[in-house]
């Protein structure tokens, strides 16, 4: 029985209606009808295809007539998966396309499932109520580059109009005239051409005028009319698209028809262009939302909208999404090309069972090997084996990724070619995988994916004897398996001799000779320079790859000679693996206070740090772990060290060395060779990179395995079970008790609250750690007090008690020190050597302070007088914490003493008795000293306050006395000097008031006399003004203006009733100023009279008379003569105002 005798249709006679390439162009041209008929006849309306049709139709029918939007559809699938075929079938079924012989789309499909037939029937009923049905479809990118213009052309063509917008507008004009059908009939097959050339076509003009002779006198006149009426149209916008689509669909109708618009290969058309994406988005929104739910838009693309970022913007516009996958492709192939005839299953099944051993041997150990689940598909796939079909799919998918189209289109055609080629073989002869090579080698070579050297070698061998032909087949498989080698860790198929033989065997009954020949032929090919073996896998070798291989071998030898380099590489990988294994074991928490303890990773000889858990890393590559274990067992049980022992596996040691060598050598070659410029070079580079990656992965895996098997020991020999990370954490936790034996004394989560409360001088701060007794009785405080000795820096105390064997937190140490200081049990001095109060210092200063234990014990009898002194000084304090404010007390006493005197005439300020001695003390010593002198200091403080008050009371009078003397009471200057020099401000009785009275009397008399002199001069001047006839002629306003201008204004009599009023009056106008005012009055009177004359006689000029000292009548006569001469001369120019 031959293979072809098992098929429903002999492969030699089977014809693919579309040669495996589905295209949509709807409505179809007459020459495409036969192809479409063939597609309908072989359409497998099943699985995702049937489900997709049903979902599309039901979604659309749910929107018709409801005034809403029709949900647009996105059909996705790898290139050729049947998405275009499905869209084409949808269009044919939408209109139930009728063929010339009366056959319909529905009738041609072999089986239309109920879930598709039912909504189609509902669509027909809805179409009768509407304006019928229209289906339009084409591939974007084959026409205009603008999607709106392309979509409009698709719709126009579907309603029988030219896709050109300008020609369509002419067609709509003909329809409006009612002559479109007549003109179309008259022009016949040339209608489209003539209407596109409506200006130049005389046939078109004649046909129109025949129906409407009154439009123009001749076709030429009509041409001119149409040229002006239909100019070049604008670019097609979405608004224009909507208008024209509506007009096109309503052509010859009274209602909108139920319309399907298919835009094929939209994703390929968009090409990640955001502008085109936005246009498609807008078109989809407009077509779906503006046609009463009667327009269904269907778009196709290789990927689902959610899988591509640039397409995600379309998600909301295409709510119905249909995805086609590989399972759907397989189903189509089995029901078409590979469909078996009735009765063929039994012999095929018998043959497969008989050869089950050979079949199960193929690709053993890989994920593509034959499985029990394949038994059901094996009959359907024959003469392809399921395992080989999966290899084909991997190869085709890889080629599809590179753009060669390993898809349904490719698989249908390739599967049919395979069935034809092996159809005449006896049943039991399967299609080998190398058959696939001939289906794409030319395209792969043209695309630069197949090296020319390899292609030429294969072609040469194929024309040779049987041995060479087998070599050619082997080379084909080496090439194809090399294409999918980067994913070999996932699928497990590698180009090894056995695998190559598995995929070459045709006769499943046995080709043992072929299996024996393959390894030998591979070595012959290697000797010829065609292939190379890398780690048991065979790869193509070109001239360039040979150069790469030679460089690799040289570097490999150099690395093997450098053992230190290999050791370094192994150590780096080991550190990386340890880092991964111990990722969560960087530290552990300690106690209820949850202190973080770091785990320090150390080499065997590293010095352990002062704090934290030492984790010693011991490697079997560097040490004898048996000896190490004995040393660990002999260590003290107080030793906090944890040991991680990483075993060395002799069985994989050579493998690790080989992997490290390969990795380093390959990486070096990649760096040295740089970026190749040829396809062969890039292929060699890819192979070298794959070799490096694989070797690196192996090396890492061996080291990871070693680390995963590591053992963790506690010093003393205790083995801790579990994974390395968890075991290390457990060991570190166990080590805490060894490293910090005193930790429990200070382990409490409340120490931060102790510190905060102590900073607020709370005497009960220790209650935050549940300690109600005296602070010095707490273990932490005891330890601190015992450590103080003659004095310790805060930083030293912190360092000691946060480190082993204590390990307390810094809050614990700081809080305890502040509590002890507040309780007067510790004396604190700052970095300046002066006593310091910790609550008043920033935290960072605590480390610079020095702490000493208090030796002086203070009794309540000593505290009482100091409390009285503090109260008198106005300083707040807490009982039993008086020592915290003693520094402030000394400052307050010094201030009070300083204010008991001052600058003369105040007495000299006093000083605080024993102040230098006090400043040399601190803490309880200072408290005791102040307690002894408290009575004296309180008296002193009272006296100092009284003196300061008295000074404050008398200083204002003293300032007034100084002011009066400075203003003119010179008789009192001597008394003032005596008071200042003698510092007698506080003398009793107060010496200043009598001095003020005497000075005031003196100044009162002088001020009254000055005012009287001014007043007499004023009266005299006023009289002169009153006697002057010119002045009398002035109005009151004019007089006032002149007075202001000349400074002739009445002065108020100064107030002299009190010494302070006298001082204020003289400060405003002194005695010398009064005298100058008296002297200036006559001249101001003269100025006022001259101003009055000038006002009444605008031409009057002032004439200055000459000054003179007259001693006789003769001199007088001489002066008068000169005055007369000067005035007379001036009178010639007008009135004169003499001025002396």
Automatic annotation (TrEMBL):
Q: Which InterPro entries match?
A: BREX_BrxC, P-loop_NTPase
Top-level taxon: Bacteria
Name listed for the protein in its UniProt record: BREX system P-loop protein BrxC
Species assigned in the record = Edaphosphingomonas fennica
Q: What is the lineage of its organism?
A: Bacteria, Pseudomonadati, Pseudomonadota, Alphaproteobacteria, Sphingomonadales
């Amino acid at each position: 029985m031959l293979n072809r005798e098992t098929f429903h249709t002999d492969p030699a006679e089977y014809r693919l209606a579309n040669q495996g390439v589905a295209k949509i162009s709807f409505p179809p041209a007459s020459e495409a009808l036969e192809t479409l008929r063939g597609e309908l006849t072989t359409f497998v309306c099943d699985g995702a295809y049937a489900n997709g049709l049903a979902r599309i139709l039901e979604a659309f029918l749910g929107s018709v007539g409801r005034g809403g939007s029709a949900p647009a559809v996105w059909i996705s699938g790898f290139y050729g998966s049947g998405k275009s075929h499905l869209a084409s079938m949808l269009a044919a079924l939408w209109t139930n396309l009728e063929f010339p012989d009366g056959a319909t789309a529905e009738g041609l499909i072999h089986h239309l499932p109920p879930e598709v037939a039912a909504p189609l029937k509902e669509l027909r009923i809805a179409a009768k109520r509407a304006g019928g049905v229209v289906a339009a479809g084409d591939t974007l990118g084959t026409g205009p580059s603008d999607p709106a213009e392309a979509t409009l052309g698709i719709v126009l063509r579907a309603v029988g109009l030219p896709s050109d917008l300008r020609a369509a507008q002419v067609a709509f004009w003909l329809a409006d005239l009612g002559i479109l059908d007549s003109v179309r009939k008259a022009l016949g097959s040339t209608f489209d051409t003539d209407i596109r050339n409506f200006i130049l076509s005389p046939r078109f003009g004649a046909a129109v005028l025949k129906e409407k002779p009154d439009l123009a006198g001749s076709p030429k006149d009509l041409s001119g009319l149409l040229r002006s009426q239909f100019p070049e149209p604008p670019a097609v916008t979405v608004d224009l698209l909507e208008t024209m689509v509506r007009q096109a669909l309503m052509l010859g109708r009274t209602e909108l028809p139920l319309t399907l618009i298919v835009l094929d290969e939209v994703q390929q058309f968009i090409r990640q262009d955001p502008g085109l994406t936005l246009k498609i988005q807008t078109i989809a929104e407009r077509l779906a939302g503006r046609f009463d739910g009667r327009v269904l838009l269907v778009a196709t693309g290789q990927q689902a909208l959610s899988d591509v970022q640039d397409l995600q913007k379309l998600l909301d516009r295409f709510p119905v999404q249909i995805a086609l996958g590989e399972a759907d492709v397989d189903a189509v192939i089995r029901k078409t090309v590979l469909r078996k005839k009735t009765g063929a299953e039994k012999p095929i099944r018998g043959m497969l069972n008989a050869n089950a051993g050979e079949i199960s041997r193929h690709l053993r150990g890989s994920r593509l090997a034959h499985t029990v689940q394949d038994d059901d598909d094996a009959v359907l796939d024959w003469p392809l084996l399921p395992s080989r079909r999966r290899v084909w799919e991997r190869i085709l998918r890889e080629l599809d990724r590179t753009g060669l189209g390993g898809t349904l289109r490719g698989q249908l055609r390739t599967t049919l070619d395979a069935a034809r080629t092996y159809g005449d073989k006896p049943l039991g002869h399967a299609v080998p995988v190398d058959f696939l090579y001939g289906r794409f080698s030319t395209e792969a070579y043209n695309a630069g994916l197949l090296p020319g050297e390899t292609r030429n070698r294969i072609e040469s061998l194929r024309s040779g004897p049987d041995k060479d032909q087998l070599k050619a087949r082997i080379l084909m498989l080496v090439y194809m398996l090399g294409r999918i080698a980067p994913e070999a860790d996932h699928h497990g198929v590698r180009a090894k001799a056995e695998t190559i033989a598995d995929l070459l065997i045709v006769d499943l009954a046995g080709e043992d000779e072929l299996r024996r020949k393959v390894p030998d032929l591979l070595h012959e090919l290697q000797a010829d320079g065609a292939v190379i073996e890398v780690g048991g896998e065979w790869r193509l070798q070109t001239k360039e790859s040979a150069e790469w291989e030679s460089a690799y071998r040289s570097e490999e030898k150099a690395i093997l000679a450098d053992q230190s380099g290999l050791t370094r590489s192994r150590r780096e990988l080991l550190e990386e693996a340890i880092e991964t294994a111990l990722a969560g074991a960087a530290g552990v928490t300690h106690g209820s206070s949850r202190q973080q303890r770091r785990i320090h990773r150390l080499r065997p000889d590293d010095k352990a740090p002062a704090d934290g858990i030492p984790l010693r890393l011991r490697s079997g590559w560097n040490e004898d772990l048996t000896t190490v274990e004995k040393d660990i067992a002999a260590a003290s049980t107080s030793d906090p060290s944890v040991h991680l022992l990483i075993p060395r596996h002799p069985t994989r040691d050579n493998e690790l060395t080989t992997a490290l060598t390969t990795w380093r050598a390959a990486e070096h070659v990649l760096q040295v060779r740089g970026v190749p410029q040829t396809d062969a070079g890039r292929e060699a580079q890819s192979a070298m990179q794959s070799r490096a990656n694989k070797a690196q992965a192996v090396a890492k895996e061996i080291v990871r395995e070693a680390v995963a098997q590591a053992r963790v020991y506690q010093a003393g020999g205790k083995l801790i079970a579990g994974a390395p990370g968890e075991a290390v954490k457990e060991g570190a936790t166990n080590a805490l008790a060894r490293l910090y034996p005193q930790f429990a004394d200070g382990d409490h989560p409340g120490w931060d609250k102790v510190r905060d409360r102590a900073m607020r001088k709370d005497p009960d701060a220790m209650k935050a750690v549940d300690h109600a007794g005296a602070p010095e009785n707490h273990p932490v405080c005891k330890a601190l007090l015992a450590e103080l000795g003659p004095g310790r820096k805060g930083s030293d105390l912190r360092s000691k008690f946060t480190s082993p064997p204590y390990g307390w937190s810094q809050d614990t140490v700081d809080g305890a020190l502040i509590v002890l200081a507040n309780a007067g049990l510790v004396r604190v001095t700052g970095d300046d050597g002066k006593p310091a109060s910790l609550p008043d210092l920033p935290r960072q200063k605590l480390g610079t302070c020095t702490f000493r234990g208090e030796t002086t014990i203070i009794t309540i009898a000593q505290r009482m007088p100091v409390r009285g002194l503090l109260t008198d000084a106005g300083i707040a304090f807490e009982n039993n914490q008086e020592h915290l404010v003693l520094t402030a007390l000394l400052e307050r006493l010094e201030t009070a003493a300083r204010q008991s005197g001052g600058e003369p005439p105040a007495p000299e300020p006093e000083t605080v008795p024993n102040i230098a001695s006090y400043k040399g003390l601190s803490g309880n010593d200072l408290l005791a000293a102040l307690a002894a002198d408290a009575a004296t200091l309180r008296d002193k403080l009272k006296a100092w306050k009284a003196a300061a008050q008295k000074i404050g009371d008398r200083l204002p009078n003293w300032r007034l006395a100084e002011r009066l003397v400075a203003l003119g009471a010179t008789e009192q200057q001597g008394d003032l000097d005596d008071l200042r020099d003698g510092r007698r401000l506080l003398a009793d009785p107060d010496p200043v008031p009598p001095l003020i009275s005497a000075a005031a009397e003196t100044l009162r008399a002088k001020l009254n006399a000055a005012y009287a002199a001014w007043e007499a001069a004023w009266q005299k001047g006023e009289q002169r003004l009153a006697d002057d006839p010119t002045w009398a002629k002035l109005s009151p306003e004019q007089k006032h203006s002149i007075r202001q201008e000349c400074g002739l204004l009445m002065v108020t009599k100064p107030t002299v009733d009190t010494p302070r009023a006298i001082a204020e009056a003289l400060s405003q106008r002194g005695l010398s100023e009064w005298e100058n005012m008296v002297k200036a009055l006559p001249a101001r009177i003269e100025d006022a009279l001259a101003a009055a004359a000038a006002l009444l006689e605008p031409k009057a000029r002032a004439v200055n008379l000459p000054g003179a000292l007259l001693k006789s009548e003769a001199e007088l006569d001489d002066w008068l003569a000169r005055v007369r001469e000067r005035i007379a001369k001036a009178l010639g120019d007008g009135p004169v105002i003499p001025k002396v």
